[in-house]
């Protein structure tokens, strides 16, 4: 039996996320779904796995929640269940940045489709920034991307403010695992006065799923938030622990992120 794995998120206004927790937990448990879902006033984020039918039932339920019809979902597969347990947690943020007042649902920068991303990577006048933490970047990244060498996403605002002057007047392109961190980080940059900023739609996972390996600008594999460890093109499980190895791609600069789709 193979398992369907989905990374999902949606910035949406949940007035009472605590009231959503138990019904969602009960449904996932009844369907045999495992993984982690995070609920906050700003929306939902997580990665879960189960049978195709079970995942379809859970996604249908989530899409019926307030403003979640356009839930962002990325599918992959695993030969074995990649999670040991089920968790539905209440959080202050579905991706922790600790910058109050951001509204990614309205303030995030424009997307660049995966099919158009190579032109961004190849453009010498565009500053390409990997918003993931240093542990994740160690598995792989896009050629020439800047690695802020952060330990957590909450460190990114401080890094940006320390280096913003270096990028003044330049176009900024950002990417992350599944897209959610870029929703928030591009909203943050816009709040800091950056006008020309874009991000990769669907994140690295969408790029690896849609762009043929022969055309790829990606080097290495992509760390994911389950026991598969990492995936490559076509979202095929790689699994090798590269966290103690030298990166295999050029980058400027140097523990996993909290559970979620990234």
Automatic annotation (TrEMBL):
InterPro entries documented for this protein: Rhodanese-like_dom, Rhodanese-like_dom_sf, TrhO, TRHO_N
Pfam families linked to this entry: Rhodanese (PF00581), UPF0176_N (PF17773)
Reaction equation(s) it catalyzes: uridine(34) in tRNA + AH2 + O2 = 5-hydroxyuridine(34) in tRNA + A + H2O
Record SUPFAM superfamilies: Rhodanese/Cell cycle control phosphatase (SSF52821)
Rhodanese domain boundaries: 122-216
Stored SMART domains: RHOD (SM00450)
EC number: 1.14.-.-
Top-level EC class: oxidoreductase
Any Gene Ontology biological process: tRNA modification
Gene3D superfamilies, alphabetized: 3.30.70.100, Rhodanese-like domain (3.40.250.10)
Gene Ontology molecular functions: oxidoreductase activity, acting on paired donors, with incorporation or reduction of molecular oxygen
Keywords assigned: Oxidoreductase, tRNA processing
Role this protein plays: Catalyzes oxygen-dependent 5-hydroxyuridine (ho5U) modification at position 34 in tRNAs.
Family the UniProt entry places it in: Belongs to the TrhO family.
Descriptive protein name: tRNA uridine(34) hydroxylase
Annotated organism of origin: Sphingopyxis lindanitolerans
